[in-house]
Amino acid sequence: MGILDIFKRQNSSNSPKTAEQRKKETEKLLRSLDIPYIDHLPLVEEENEVKIRTAQEIAERILILVYLAYVSEVPDKKEIVIDFLKANSLWDKVSPDEKDLFQKYKLTDQDAVNISWRSEAVWLLLWTINKVDKLKLPTEQVKIPEIVSRLPKFLTDPSEFIETAIVRPITEILDLSDLTYRLHWATRNADLNKQTMPANLNLSIIMERHYAINWVTYYADEWDEITTDT
Description:
Helix content is 54%, strand content 0%. The chain is mostly helical. It has two domains: 5-51 and 169-225, no CATH class; 55-163, no CATH class.
């Protein structure tokens, strides 16, 4: 069962939810999992106000993140990958910070760690375009073969993957946005207070998911400018 299934049961009529209803549903789920929350944490956007990235934008971003991760592990293939991205109209979609990483003579250890953790953002983005059926609570890192199995073969034409991507309904994306936001508060609070993480949650995974879902919902226009306030 995915973590959002409870929301589907509660909203079986498929009628639009208000942001306040969504918050209350999330808090009910958190109580059932014994995960703390604060009532005054703000609401996420209303369904009729939020702007969502297109499925094609999301698919392109997934490919960029995956190829950056590959280059970080196999740096001698850097030029081949950059040429591939240029040939498939993806290089212009690479963010300025990512271009610096792609072209950097030698990545630092911290660069490599940061890039590696982006796999958790990729997993969430795959979910938003229906390439992952269900998301579980963020307690265990995603297995890289699980990501690779959902992508076009290495250095092959990505156009079908991009063009056939279908974004999930707005209500599901906002359900996840609200939940991720409140999970991030709970784990960040536990970390700051040197407490045991509730429900075995992983703060680093949640941070990456929060970054990705905030990009999907236009928390900022550009990938490099996304923040994950709690």
